[in-house]
Structures are given as C-alpha cells and as structure tokens.
Amino acid sequence: MRDDCFRMVWKVWKSRRLLSKDNRGIIKLIPKADDLFLLKNWRPITLLTTTYKIVAKIIAWRLRDMLPGIIDRQQTGFIAGRSIVENILSLRMSQEWMPVTGQDVMFIKLDFQKAYDRVSHTYLWETLTAIGISQNNIRRIQGLVQGGAAQVHVNGRFTRRFEVTRGVRQGCPLAPLLFAIATQPLMRLLREEEANGRLRGVNYGGGTTLLHQIYADDTGVNLTMDEAQFDRLKHIIQVYESISGAKLNVSKSLIMPIGPSIPPDWTNETGCDIAGPGRGFIYLGVRTSNPVDEQQIVISIKQKILKRLSHWSNRFLSWPAHITLLKQVLAATPLYQMLSVGIEAEGIDGLETLCRQFLWGWADQEHPKASMIARDWNKIRKKLRWDDTCKEIPDQLTIEQAGYLIHWRDFEASKRLQSIASYLGRLTFTQYRMGWNYCQTIRPGWKR
User: The pTM is what?
Assistant: First the structure.
C-alpha cells in the first residue's frame, strides 16, 4: 500500500497534473446562519479524493514555511506564528486608546461575499509569480485548481457534474494558504496609500501606527474620520474587486466610530450599517461595542453555552460524559472571549452556576448528588410500570444489575440505569429508589 501510494504521488508530482477522476469533488452545504432559506447562509465544503488531498498537503507543507516571510504581518489567518487574537486585541486597544488621545477614528469591518469562491484563477497565478513561487510549483498548483469538477449533494441527491472555473475549494488543504496569498495585493495597496499619506490609521505614539488587520477574508480598517480618506478607501476596494474577482458585501459591512466627536452619517451614502454608541456586533466571533459592554458579553456567552448544552440535556449521558461536555463547552466557549476582555467575578459566578445546573440538576451546593438521583429517578419512573417492575427486582441487586434485568421491558430505561451505575458505584437498586424520597425531604416538590 505504501509503495503504491508513493508511486501515485510521484507520478502526479512529475507530471504536474491530476487525472480527471482524481480531480472531482462532492460539495456538501453546511448551515452557517439562522435563515436557511437563503442560499448565502450555507457554506459549501468540498469532499475531495485521497490522491488530491495528499498532493495538496505536500504543497501546503512547502508553502507553510515560506509564507511568514512573504505575506504581510497584517494577515493573521493560516500563517504560522500568527493568531486571530492579534486582530481582536488591536481593536480593543484602539477602543481604549483613542478616547484618551482625542483621535477621531472609525473602525470599518469589510465583509467580502463568498470570498473563497470568487477568486480569479488568472489573478491567483499572477500573484503567485509576483511573490516568488517557482514555476514548477505554480504548475502543480494549477494542476490541482484548474480542470476540477464538482457536483452538489443536497437532500440525498446529486446535481449534474460541472467544471470549477474560479475560486479555491473549501475542504482543500491548500485553499487557506492560497487565499492568504490572494489578499497580499490588497494589503500592498493599503500599505502604499498609507506611505503616501493618502490614508491615515491609528497612531499609538512612538511611530507605531495601524491601518488594517485581516484574518482570512475578514478585513478591519482603522481610518481617520475624514470623508476624503473614506472615498480613497472605496477606490482601493474597487480596484481590488476588478483585478481579483472579489465583491464587497455592503449589507454585512459595518462602520464603528471611535473617538470623542460625533461622526457624519454615511449610512445613506455607503449602505453600510453604523454601530453607534452601545451598539454591539460580532467581530471574528467576539461580541464588541463602543464602549465595551461587559454585561452584554457575559449574556452572549451564556446564551451560546445554553444553546449548545440544550442539544444534550435530554440525552442519556453517563457521569464521564457530563464532565467531558463541561470541559469542551463551558471551558472553551468563555476562554476565547476572555482573551480580549476581562470578566468580573459576578460573571464568572454565573458561568459556574450553569455548570452546576447541567451537572447536578440545580445550583444547590449542599446536596449535589441527591439532585442527580432525583433527576434520573424522575425520568425512569415515568417510563416503567413500577408496581409490576419493581417487584421483579430483588433488593440486593445493584443498579447496573437491575438495568440488565429490565432490558427486556424497556431498553432506554435499562441503558439509563447502567449509565447511572457508572457514577453511583455499587449502590443497590432499592437504595437508589429510596433516594427519591430523600430528595423530596430535602427539597419538597422538586421536579426536573
């Protein structure tokens, strides 16, 4: 198997092209927003052949080591040694520093429509040549990107196969790096305009300025609040659109004024939304506003956690499964948000309450295990005819043994008892059944 794979890859590497059967993909649509009746709210992910992905991965490994010295520092997406946190912290620093220095700045969030799918192949080859990629490697990349075919799989059916004539396919190991390369001319245009004094960004003092930050296609521009500079930025975007195939999504772009002065209203002129004082919006997955509203950030974190946990609340989960979910959901979700904004002790207490509620059933710290007994018992007793079933279970049987015994009567209740046994040890079924009465004693009328 290893030798066959090696010969296959070597043949593709030398010929710089794939066979047509290896350059086919199946496009699956992944929902990314609430209104799924709109096609733009679906993300196309291409499932590619093994041969394609092996060759693409080899080229990606070679490019990965080269790009940090080629791509501008302002592009933080998919480049080794760079992080999305840099973009978020840069915005936070501007929000804190501008009111102190009295600078009038606007943060412009640019959103490009279907950015990956609109990249012109001709533009991509010229950009690869301009940054110094060898012609042999460019031909290998062309062999992967050009001449490919795809078909969409939706509702269990396949569409007709069609040729892919533009864009980089999401699902390809090489696609993120190629897109980062495709943004280099835009960053160069912005850098040249700043050097010529036609665009002015945020001045942090000591000769440190910041005009733009980009993560993949999410572009943020810090611009001095001046209509002439705003018009100049629009001209640069139009030039970039004409050469690359990109298209600015004006309805999803946004302007947030930062500074002491009242900004002009450019909503009618630009079509962009204006985030005024206290108006929150999402930037790179983090909720922000001007000024920063910590309470709203905590509320958004709680809503996100509750939404994710709601899918698991009615599942038959063991004790280790509860712990694993808490670590993956309750720990990971706030961590990313807290990289850019501090959360007070009160907000942390609220998140811990969510943790206890999911783990034990309520936020009572004195009787946590009793609440778990009550919760599980309440679920099981509704499933079985206890007058008949309990008579069939000897008193000395453990919970796990009782689960096996009633397997023939109710499979779900049986699995639930076996799951409960993993965190209640060798407790007998009779002791477990009596736990319901105990829970009613410490908290009468409690129901899950």
Answer: 0.75
